[in-house]
Design a protein that fits this description.
The protein has 351 residues and is an alpha+beta fold. 19% of the residues lie in helices and 33% in strands. The model has no long low-confidence stretch (mean pLDDT 97). The structure holds 1-hydroxynaphthalene-2-carboxylic acid.
């Protein structure tokens, strides 16, 4: 067969000749573009706090919060190195602030959540209101609101940052700006937002001060914990999730942020959960207690034994199973609001 008759050679010649025009054949990539089920480069991963903490503390000696702007160690997915991403759509990092430090005020279109991991007494200021951090508090920085962090604590304070950076990057829609002052002027006393919006009541002529984002920017742990404890005693425990609650925007009943869903769950002592998988990959922060998460997908099997302040990620469409001999409390976040907005969310629960 000479070259023009050999289909493989004909094709290769076609690809070479049209390449300068930036043309490429769909049929070579079609199956990868529309896989039969989600195929992610993101892999299950576990960061033990005992192993991470020494590096956080060393970063505290290597650079000030002021100089770093934000002193954060990124939790980078092993399958996504170099991309500053924990899943393909979300970012996670652990931020350290030391006594007396200030992380200067700025704003950006990326939304952020903070989940307090260690220490108390640091604060974050959002739109002129400060909130003091305690372990287990879930705090929101809405898109395009000025925010600065500071610490009057007597020891290090560490929190998990969850941002929608890869989503905003995907849409090439990111803007950022530094504030004129290092720390924001305080214009409302601490707790005003929670009093206005956080007691199953809202101001009669309320607006939505942060658009699609919740007007509550701090959801204190003691209230979440109390609800979970009460439900563990008095309500049926879900065989997959234990007792799991979703944080809400009180003005809509929907997710607290347009791009991120947040959850807190309690696994009762002796819990041995059933497996599930969902299209939204999720990042977990262990609040109290210990347990095990087993993950599987294709030929891959992972088992992580977790302790307080550990973090782990369950990627999209990986089957996961939670268990906890002594009981535990877990915080988690994912990009589920986007899956719902696009009509893509899918969940399977194994019996
Ligand atoms: C940011 O502004 C914070 O405000 C944390 O604490 C992490 C990661 C990338 C871009 C901006 C913060 C960030 C960030």
């Amino acid at each position: 067969m000479n070259a023009p008759d050999n289909p493989l050679l004909v094709r290769q010649q076609l690809y070479r000749d049209m390449d300068p025009l930036h043309l490429t054949p769909l049929w070579e990539v079609l199956h990868a573009l529309v896989p039969p089920e989600p195929a992610t480069p993101c892999v299950p991963a576990h960061w033990k706090y005992d192993e991470v903490r020494p590096f956080l503390m060393r970063s505290g000696q290597a650079i000030t919060a002021q100089e770093a702007v934000r002193r954060v160690l990124i939790l980078e997915n092993p399958g996504l190195r170099g991309q500053s991403a924990v899943t393909r759509s979300l970012y996670a990092g652990l931020q350290l602030i030391l006594p007396g430090e200030v992380a200067p005020s700025h704003r950006h279109t990326q939304s952020a959540l903070r989940f307090i991991v260690e220490g108390r007494g640091a604060y974050t200021a959002v739109d002129g209101e400060r909130t003091t951090m305690h372990p287990g508090d879930f705090i929101i920085t809405p898109s395009w609101t000025f925010h600065d962090h500071g610490s009057d604590a007597d020891g290090p304070v560490v929190w998990l940052d969850g941002l929608d950076i890869p989503i905003v990057r995907f849409f090439d829609a990111g803007f950022a700006e530094n504030d004129a002052s290092r720390s924001q002027q305080v214009t409302r006393s601490e707790g005003t937002s929670l009093a206005r919006y956080g007691h199953n009541m809202v101001p009669v002529r309320h607006d939505a001060p942060f658009g699609a984002t919740s007007p509550i920017f701090s959801y204190p742990y003691d209230r979440s914990r109390e609800a979970l404890e009460r439900l563990e005693r008095d309500a049926p425990v879900d065989e997959w999730d234990g007792v799991k609650l979703r944080y809400v925007n009180p003005l809509t009943g929907g997710y607290p942020m347009p791009t991120m869903a947040t959850f807190m769950q309690k696994l009762p002592a002796g819990f041995a959960g059933k497996g599930w998988r969902q299209t939204d990959g999720a990042i977990y922060s262990v609040v109290e207690g210990s347990g095990t998460v087993e993950v599987e997908a294709g030929d891959g099997r992972w088992r992580f034994d977790f302790s307080p302040r550990d973090h782990f990620v369950i990627p999209s469409w990986h089957t996961a199973r939670l268990s906890s001999p002594g009981g535990c409390v877990l915080f988690s976040y994912s990009d589920r609001p986007v899956h719902h907005a696009l009509g893509l969310h899918k969940e399977e629960r194994l019996s």
